[in-house]
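ARCHIVE CARD
CATEGORY: sequence design from structure
SOURCE FIELD: tokenized fold
FIELD CONTENT:
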């Protein structure tokens, strides 16, 4: 057997040798191919050879699939609120709470509105805060599922504003992304807890009859907690509160360097509520009686009697309300609201107002407010002049055209013999005079100069048909009080507006 096998090998070798000698060109091609073919076979042998085991390759593929599944697991979603509400109510509430949005938020969450859907009360609660001021508004809605989320208030306000009248559907959902151990190593924090390995992506879907919107938000857990004011509410008539605010708001300073003067000082004692505002050049004081507004019985205490009572200082609650808060209350407190509740907590130094479905809370301005009452006791006001409010305001507005940034003064010349008041203003580019009828003492002759802007604002703030001016001399302030028919005769109110004069250069 061995000899036959060796003979066959020798025979095949001779045949290959003869073919190579007969065709030398083919021999060269074969030799070249013999050099190249092994390289190709080496590359293909690992994958094409059926005898090669495939288990390691399958294991690698399975490992790659497992690693990809770890990196991209199915994202769990948490369904939140499901609400159907009216566009008009939603927009009105958003417009109200938007007043508390800071111009430059220190944190992104402060630019968001907190939306809470309450199933039990079937209401939507909206809250916006800049820490110092917080406004919450609620309105009725059809709440199918409860939930809460925060989204940028400006974006939401503009979307709801341009939605057609009708119903709006709100839906919120939260996507929870889980970090793997490899992600922890990339963040260089391998000791992070399970809570740190999760991120929540919140979004609010809003749809109406014409379209659908999706707004990316922030979890409600990051929204600052709402401070609850633990105090007994004091109910005040809306007419009293609004008249008191409007009577002094014009005199509040806008200079942030005098921050204490940018607010309105309130004093609440027994049956009296006092509002004080000043900017250092003028003082406005309004006192209102809060005892049985609109009713006069034998047992009722009059406003003059209340003012004359000696009230101990410890029974007077006083604080300074930020001017921004006062303006928002005066602007958003509608006339159809009968009463407003006032809450003040001296320990937390916070103040709250509640009416209908609106709650406003703020931080009280810290500092000692100037004692304006003591300041006014230094002056006497013996001379009285009665002027019709409408002609006075009209004449001042005409002359205000000639004012400029440098000179804003106007001259007042009281002539008792002619029973008239002459208002005059003179500038380089022009001059003007206005004469109105006045009721004043016959022997009175007085010239005094005031800031025209301050005088117009004081006259407009008086809620009566006539204005009574109390004067003394040219270098003393003037005090304006209501006279004649009052706009709200059922409200017992006393009002004083004090203006410091501009000294006449000629003496």
């Amino acid at each position: 057997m061995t000899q036959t096998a060796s003979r066959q090998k020798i025979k095949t070798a001779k045949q290959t040798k003869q073919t190579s000698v007969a065709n030398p060109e083919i021999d060269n091609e074969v030799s070249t191919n013999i050099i190249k073919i092994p390289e190709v076979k080496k590359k293909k042998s690992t994958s094409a050879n059926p005898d090669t085991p495939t288990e390691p390759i399958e294991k690698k593929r399975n490992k790659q699939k497992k690693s990809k599944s770890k990196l991209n697991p199915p994202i769990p979603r948490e369904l939140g609120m499901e609400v159907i509400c009216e566009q008009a109510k939603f927009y009105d509430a958003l417009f109200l709470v938007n007043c508390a949005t800071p111009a430059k938020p220190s944190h992104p969450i402060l630019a968001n509105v907190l939306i809470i859907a309450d199933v039990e009360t079937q209401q939507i609660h909206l809250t916006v805060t800049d820490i110092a001021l917080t406004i919450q508004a609620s309105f009725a809605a059809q709440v199918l599922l409860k939930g809460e989320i925060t989204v940028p208030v400006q974006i939401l306000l503009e979307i709801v504003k341009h939605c057609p009248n009708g119903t709006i559907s709100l839906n919120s959902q939260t996507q929870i992304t889980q970090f793997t151990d490899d992600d922890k190593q990339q963040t260089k924090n391998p000791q992070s807890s399970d809570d740190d390995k999760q991120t929540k992506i919140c979004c609010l879907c809003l749809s109406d009859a014409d379209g659908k919107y999706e707004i990316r938000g922030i979890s409600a857990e990051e929204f600052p907690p709402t401070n609850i004011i633990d105090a007994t509410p004091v109910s005040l008539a809306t007419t009293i509160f609004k008249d008191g605010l409007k009577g002094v708001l014009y005199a509040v300073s806008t200079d942030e360097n005098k921050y204490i003067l940018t607010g309105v000082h309130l004093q609440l004692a027994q049956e009296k509520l006092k509002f004080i505002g000043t900017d250092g050049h003028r003082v406005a004081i309004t006192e209102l009686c809060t005892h049985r507004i609109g009713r006069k019985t034998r047992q009722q205490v009059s406003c003059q009697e209340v003012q004359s009572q000696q009230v101990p200082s410890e029974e007077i609650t006083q604080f300074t309300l930020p001017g921004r808060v006062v303006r928002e209350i005066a602007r958003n407190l509608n006339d159809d609201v009968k009463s407003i509740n006032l809450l003040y907590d001296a320990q937390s130094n916070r103040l709250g107002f509640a009416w209908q479905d609106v709650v406003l809370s703020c931080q009280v301005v810290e500092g000692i407010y100037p004692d304006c009452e003591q300041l006014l006791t230094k002056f006497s006001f013996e001379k009285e002049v009665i002027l019709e409010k409408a002609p006075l305001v009209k004449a001042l507005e005409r002359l205000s055209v000639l004012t400029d940034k440098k000179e804003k003064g106007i001259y007042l010349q009281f002539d008792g013999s002619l029973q008239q008041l002459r208002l005059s203003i003179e500038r380089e580019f022009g001059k003007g005079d206005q004469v109105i009828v006045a009721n004043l003492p016959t022997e009175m002759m007085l010239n005094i100069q005031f800031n025209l802007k301050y005088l117009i604002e004081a006259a407009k703030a008086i809620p009566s048909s006539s204005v009574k001016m109390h004067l003394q001399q040219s270098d003393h302030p003037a005090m304006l009080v209501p006279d004649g028919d009052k706009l709200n005769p059922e409200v017992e109110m006393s009002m004083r507006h004090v203006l410091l004069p501009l000294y006449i250069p000629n003496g």
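CARD ANNOTATION: Confidence is low (pLDDT under 50) at residues 1-5, 9-14, 16-50, 292-314. The first strand starts at residue 77 and ends at 86.
SHELF: design records, drawer C
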